[in-house]
Design a protein that fits this description.
The protein has about 350 residues and is α/β, with parallel strands linked by helices. The chain is built from ten helices and five strands, in the order αββαααβαββααααα. The N and C termini lie far apart (about 155 Å).
Length: about 350
């Protein structure tokens, strides 16, 4: 019995000695607690800290693989923040959807540089060396800042933050219905649709009540008087329109009459010119006929004078008046003139 007890004691002592040696051989770092992170989490309550000094912010999501790949580099960059005289922060877009809406984050990971309230988007890789050079070489000065309504501190982006925060709460509520309570997804969608309709009706009712409170109705006398004035103004406007239309019609009629008179006068002038031309041509034809007759008469007188050999004194000679064209000659001239006109008309056709 004594020998068995001694063997057990020796075994226990051997185990204790081995454990002591193993503890002694452990590195000293295992006894030192893990160093706390230098990256400051940013929330909707403390994000205004970035309005002072120089900051670098990282927007990430726990499920994002690219964000996880840059975690170690971001931690290293934060450890050197005192040397670079810069503060380093991070924003979880799942927990803080309002901040992601305020900065209008659409891709992950997203990096922002802030200097005294002026924000710029950093689009380089999330590697420590590039981040360090971005600060030391002041490359951020060549980047266009987010000014005006794009600035996270603007009123527009504040409204965007509110919308994103509401959407985040709705998403959390949807997860609570579907995951925690086990409600089907379509039931959750129906609930949100009904809630949206009810909320819209309530907002419309509130707006109507507010308008009724601020709207002061006019007395009946004033309202009737205003209606009468409106009717009289409308009647005057209608009369003015009618008068204007009548004036336009009268002016158009006068213009048409003037144009018709001008056309008739032009036609009369053309007719007179044609008649004058016809008379001239008739006279010319008749004159030609008379000339021919005169020539023949002259030749007859000469032959008679040569046969009788009668001497005629200059005093006894009488001036022979030109003969007037006969009606037959005039008709012949008119016929020839008509034939010429018909020939000209045929040539034109």
């Amino acid at each position: 019995m004594a020998g068995g007890r001694r063997g057990l004691l020796r075994t226990a002592l051997l185990v204790a000695w081995v454990a002591a040696l193993a503890a002694a051989e452990r590195p000293e770092q295992a006894l030192v607690p893990a160093e706390p992170s230098r990256v400051q989490p940013m929330t909707a309550s403390n994000w205004t800290l970035v309005m002072e000094g120089e900051w670098m912010l990282k927007f990430y999501a726990p499920w994002c693989p690219s964000c996880q790949q840059t975690d170690s580099e971001w931690e290293t960059f934060a450890k050197n923040g005192e040397t670079l005289q810069i503060s380093v922060g991070k924003v979880d877009v799942i927990q803080e959807p309002g901040l992601s809406g305020r900065f209008f984050v659409t891709t992950l990971p997203a990096f922002f540089h802030a200097k005294d309230g002026i924000f710029r988007r950093y689009r380089g890789p999330g590697i420590f060396e590039d981040l360090q050079n971005y600060i030391l070489e002041k490359k951020w000065q060549s980047v266009e800042p987010l000014t005006g309504w794009k600035s996270p501190a603007s009123l527009t982006m504040s409204g965007m933050a509110g919308l994103f925060s509401i959407s985040g709460k709705i998403w959390h509520l949807h997860n609570y219905f579907t995951v925690t309570l086990g409600i089907p997804a379509w039931c959750s969608y129906v609930f949100f649709i009904i809630a949206t309709l009810v909320f819209g009706l309530l907002m419309g009712l509130v707006l109507v009540v507010i308008s009724e409170c601020f709207y002061v109705p006019l007395p009946r006398n004033l309202s009737e008087h205003s209606e009468q004035n409106q009717r009289s103004e409308e009647a005057q406007g209608a009369e003015q329109l009618q008068d204007a239309e009548e004036e336009k019609d009268d002016s158009n009629e006068e213009e048409n009459k003037d144009s018709l008179l001008d056309d008739e006068e032009e036609k009369e002038d053309l007719g007179d010119e044609d008649e004058a031309e016809e008379d001239e041509e008739v006279d010319n034809v008749a004159g030609g006929v008379n000339e021919e007759r005169g020539d023949t008469s002259d030749q007859g007188h000469l032959t008679e004078a040569s046969v009788t050999q009668v001497e005629v004194e200059p005093e006894e000679t009488e001036a022979v008046s030109p003969e007037q064209p006969s009606s037959a000659d005039i008709e012949v001239a008119k016929d020839s003139l008509r034939q010429r006109k018909s020939q000209q008309a045929n040539k034109e056709l």
